[in-house]
Amino acid sequence: MTIQRRRPFGQNYAFVVVAVVFLALLASAGMRATPGVLMLPLGRAFGWSRGDISSAAAVGILLYGLMGPFAAALMQRFGIRRVLISALAVMTLAAASSAWMTRPWHLLLTWGVLSGVGSGCVAVVLGATVVGRWFSTHRGLMMGLLTASTATGTLIFLPALAAIAQYAGWRPVVLTIAAVCAALVPLVLWLLPERPSDIGLTRYGAVADEAAEVGAGSGNLLALTLGALHRASKRGVFWLLFATFFVCGFTTNGLIGTHFIAMCGDHGIPEVRAAGVLAMMGVFDLFGTTASGWLTDRFDPRKLLFVYYGLRGLSLIYLPYSDFSLYSLSLFGVFYGLDWIATVPPTLRLTTDAFGDRDAPIVFGWVVAGHQIGAAAAAFMAGVLRVQMGSYLTPFVIAGAAGVVAAFLALRIQRRDQRDQDAPMLPAGESA
Fold first, then answer.
1. Which of 55, 96, 197, 207 to pair with 62, CA 20 to 30 A apart?
2. 285: which residues sit within 8 A by CB, 6+ positions away?
3. Predicted TM-score of the model (pTM)
């Protein structure tokens, strides 16, 4: 391949790529967190019920997850940079056009459909694809760092957006998100090469006899995406990964991310203060998820998942019985923040172990789809139960019990033999 343009920093340019992708994932996290900030202001402005707003948020979360495997296939087929720029443009359109919404279906279209499709291409699968393409070593650590961008997005956006919503209304909130997404487009164009070989480099940490990078995918996009699903679905390890990550989404951005501010409002806690607790979770998750990546490079990821899910489930059962004082919320925020998405690096490691470097990004996309189906289910369920029962007690206990179940399911995940980790997963009837 012809070298297009050499960049500074030599092999360390891989870290520049990580920084650019980190910022894109940060903006996507801010977009996904925005419906939680808008829930109370939109209710006051239009009289929309929490069920209406939760439904739109659930659609956005669902599409965010379902886009994952297709986004991975699109990146293989058309390139990371093209897909990322297109996704940022869709996110900008979704946020900016919502400033003129007046009906619930406008909310569904902008913050449900468009934001879900756009942000679904700027998600965990993007991080997995970039790490696999640019790094040969330290993959767990880099994936932990990129996954932590969700926490950093929460840290940066939620308190600021909640303050804007409280003092200026909801329209400046959506326009702020639109401006951030639009500003990233030229940065991606300038700093993100398609692959290391385009600038005369190899993957960071690659040894001399290491296999070449996996080339761009070819063939029909649906066949590429659904074919990987068909092959993976025949193996029990896929369904265990899917089920545990379903619970991950159910217990994080579906429940806490969408309903935590509203739940605190039920106990007389202002939006900005509640958003501050979420921001604190973001601070600690930045450390927790990065540390989880480091631990994944060194310990059995199944045992890590057992600890993460088990403690998460118990903390969710505790929260509705707490007194919602500053002390108890801070304690919950620190603990839950460390655990928020620490599950991603070990889940990606197990997926790569089971399905190989070639198919792992698309298969992981389907596993992430399970995460977002769980998140959408929790966002919708908690909103409906809150309306029917007048409190969030039942959905939090249900989510906590699911976390405990997922902890034991994680121990049943079988790892592929080490000598087969880099072999591609082939369709039935083919041989290597």
1. 96
2. 148, 150, 151, 154, 337, 338, 339, 340, 341, 342
3. 0.71
